[in-house]
Amino acid sequence: MGALGAGACLAAQSVPAEVDVVIVGAGSAGLHAARRLQELGKRVVVIEARERIGGRAYTNASTFGFPFDYGCAWLHKADDNPYTPLARQWGYTLQEHDTALEGLYFRGREATADLRGRATRVEQELGDRLEKLGRRRDVAASTAVRRRSEVDDAVATFHGPMSSAVDLDELSARDYLNVGTDVPPNFLVKEGYGTLVAQYGKDVPVTLNTAARRIRYGGEGVQVDTDNGTLRAKACIVTSSTGVLAAEKIRFDPPLPAWKEDAIAGLPMGLLAKIPLQFSKPEFRYRAFEDVLQENPGKRDIYFLCWPFQLNLLVGFVGGDFAWELSAAGEAEAVDFARNALRRMWGSEADKYFVKGDFTKWASDPWALGAYAAATPGNAAAREGLRRPLADRVFFAGEACAPRWTQTCGGAALSGMETAEQLAKLLP
Whole-angstrom Cα distance, residue 346 to residue 340? Predict the structure, then answer.
């Protein structure tokens, strides 16, 4: 089994001054691009600003005493996901998990079986309407919602904040068709998705703690200015998030053309944040892998994945605007919110066995600035613009560029491989 930490790390001074391709970012897209280019006989180096590889795929085993995915956790579209055969080959423990909503609460009040059945029907109906709307028009996905009751609001939470990481009024209905975050079959990974990605990348030549600061592509080839000097190459693949690109943490010379800036602006980062809560006793109230949603006024909904792999952990999820709000408030307030939600549902049991909580911080992570990108209404074509290279020398890859199953780790892997193949055809 692979370690939870970084893969092969090169000291900054040992990085070759000139290579065929410099890849910015050692997340899923960057690692797959590097491996594919190496298979095609190209000289590659990957630079990574963090002290580890994996990007937004990150498994932490120290906080709770067992692996917990702070980033992506589901192998979406597992039948075609490039990580699925690797997980099986390397002996990872996979559990199929598709949300079924065993528990539904409205402001702490448990829904009846009839209401849960209605929610299931409304969810299917909304999915159908979103698909039809997206095929016709590039408008806000919220146009498909018929808000007549709290059931409609709860269902909108699943299709928006909990799936696409944005509220439906901020999501293009056409882009919704590309989202891969709930494409079955979906598998959870006991040892951690981040662990799996790190094992895949352990032999990739990655230089850690080396942020790209400027990419110059106006002359022959490219020059990538980093904290540890300048790298020269024939071409470059940028896998940074749209949040990092929008914040101009990487400068481009010449400056990005207007069409590229528009593409980045049309794909802002959404946010899905986790509030894991550890208890001394697992599986009270609900069984392992069951799902609970609490719908609250003001779009302050929270979803719980109960006791994954029989661990003594409830994983709370908040998404969209509310996730950004909680992230600004901080970890203590986020944990308090989740605990209060449990108190309203389960009373004293919520406190009796509580040990500790945590909160994922992708909103403030300087090399993520969000969870994954979602196209705003009218900007479904932005993904195509983001994929489009600059002067056939600077290419872009990642979950935001995924050719299918956008917003997923598997989609990022596909983007990295396909971008590598496209670039390789242009190299001498």
Answer: 10
Please give the residue that has the higher pLDDT: either 238 or 282. Answer: 238
More confident residue, 425 or 15: 425
- Max alpha carbon distance in the chain (Å)? 68
> In this structure, are residues 193 and 69 in contact, taking their beta carbons and an 8 Å threshold?
yes
Question: Exposed, middle or buried, 115 (CB in 10 Å: 0-12/13-18/19+)?
Answer: middle
Which fold does the domain 99-181+272-357 belong to in CATH? Polyamine Oxidase; Chain A, domain 2 (3.90.660)
* CA 374 from centre of chain: 11
**372 three-state secondary structure:** strand
Tokens at residue 409, please? Answer: 């780790």
pLDDT band at residue 101 under the 50/70/90 scheme:
confident
Cβ atoms of 21 and 406 closer than 8 Å:
no
Residues in CB range of 380: below 8 A, 6 or more apart: 138, 172, 174, 175, 178
Q: Are 97 and 187 in contact (CB under 8 A)?
A: yes
Asked if residue 141 lies in contact with residue 159, where contact means CB atoms within 8 angstroms, the answer is yes
Domain locations along the chain: 12-76+81-93+190-266+369-424, 99-181+272-357
Copy the structure tokens of residue 165.
């990481």
At the topology level, CATH places domain 12-76+81-93+190-266+369-424 in: FAD/NAD(P)-binding domain (3.50.50)
Q: Which residue bears the tokens 């891969």?
A: 180
42 phi and psi, to 5 degrees? -100, 150
pLDDT, one tens digit per residue, over 66-83 is 999 999 999 999 999 999
For residues 407 and 2, give the distance between their C-alpha atoms in angstroms, rounded to a whole number: 25
223's CB contacts (< 8 A; 6+ apart) are 215, 216, 230, 231, 232
Residue 401, CA atoms < 13 Å, CB-side half-sphere: 30
The mean per-residue pLDDT over the stretch 260-289 comes to: 95
Query: Which token pair is 275?
Result: 């509030």
Quick check: 49 pLDDT over 80? Answer: yes
Please tell me the distance from the alpha carbon of residue 314 to that of residue 310, in angstroms, as a whole number.
10
pTM for this one? 0.94
The first and second tokens of residue 148, run together, are 């007549």
Distance between CA atoms of residues 282 and 113, nearest Å: 24
The two beta strands, 229-238 and 18-24, are: parallel
β-bridge partners, 206: 9, 46
